[in-house]
């Protein structure tokens, strides 16, 4: 099964599509009419059927990506596998990371401004969509005749769960919207998003802890300055009296306690900084693990695609060999038949030759004086020889060229007997 494949969407610099052709207005109109985060639009124009998938990237930025299959005279009767195929392709695009990626909060974001700047990635995605066509063949049927009783601009909208209603509608309507407002991420995509969201929350909490500890340090430093000022004032005030010695000692003890508290806070800050460093290392490690998983997933996808290609090549080779075997068998049968016919003909000609030789000997034994003739073929440049069987004459495959002198031993109304066999009298002229 064959299909045209299109990739389109709204990105940083607005709408673009690949390839960009006569379908531009159709896809752009579809883009403006989107109603859900994930949906498939079925659109029919004559014998062409469009299956257009759109997936929202950011509602705030009004960005989305779209994928489309265009078939000729083909109707897909079940949209559930079609949703699965498109969602798998979106996962593949995100994992590759050329056009789409995850933000720190685990939500999708676009990495490109326009599609035409990433032609290699677009071709790879197109090839990946093509590789999914084999699974679509199981859910297709021949496109029914167009229903002229329904206007071509009428629309029907369904949830992806309304399977029976959808199938009934596509037999009559040219425009159908199937909405899937939840569960449109694959398990892999959901897992990646969850991990990134969790890491982002941990990072945010760590930064909040750091800010709080910085504020506590600042407050302690301010208190420390106030305590020093008080100490100096006490010293100056109490310099002349013993009565203030005890106050000074008390203040010194308080300062010591405060210094101890500051030291404790500094140790706490140092420990928390170490914790922050560990959290940062964890985030880096997990980001590295995510990149490794993306690389491994891409490697597995490439391996699978390569194996699928090898399998297709082997299947094609098998079909070619089967065809060659069939041709050789047919040729062998034809050769055997030809050989059988030739052997039969040789046998017949041998019998005819023996018969003619016998007749010739018999005629010679009669001691008849042969008549002399010259060959002038009435048709062509040679006279064909015949053998007699009953009252009928048949070609032997032998002949005389024009102007050849032959001796006739016997003749009837139409044929004359020569050494090679019978010749038509109309091909001979007597020599006197």
What's the overall average pLDDT, rounded? 83
Q: Helix tally?
A: 7
Compute the separation of the termini in Å: 83 Å
CATH architecture of the largest domain, by name, is 2-Layer Sandwich
Structural notes for this entry:
With 432 residues, the protein is an alpha+beta fold. The chain has three domains: 4-185, Beta-Lactamase (2-Layer Sandwich); 189-322; 371-430, SH3 type barrels (Roll), CATH 2.30.30. The protein contains seven helices and 19 strands. It has helices spanning 24-32, 80-96, 119-131, 133-136, 163-170, 187-237, 245-365; strands spanning 4-11, 14-18, 38-45, 48-58, 63-72, 74-76, 100-102, 108-110, 140-142, 155-159, 175-179, 371-375, 382-389, 392-401, 405-408, 410-411, 415-417, 422-424, 428-430. The strands form six sheets. The protein has a seven-stranded mixed sheet, sandwiched between helices. Helix 6 packs antiparallel against helix 7 (245-365). The longest helix has 121 residues, at 245-365. The two termini are 83 Å apart. The model has no long low-confidence stretch (mean pLDDT 83).
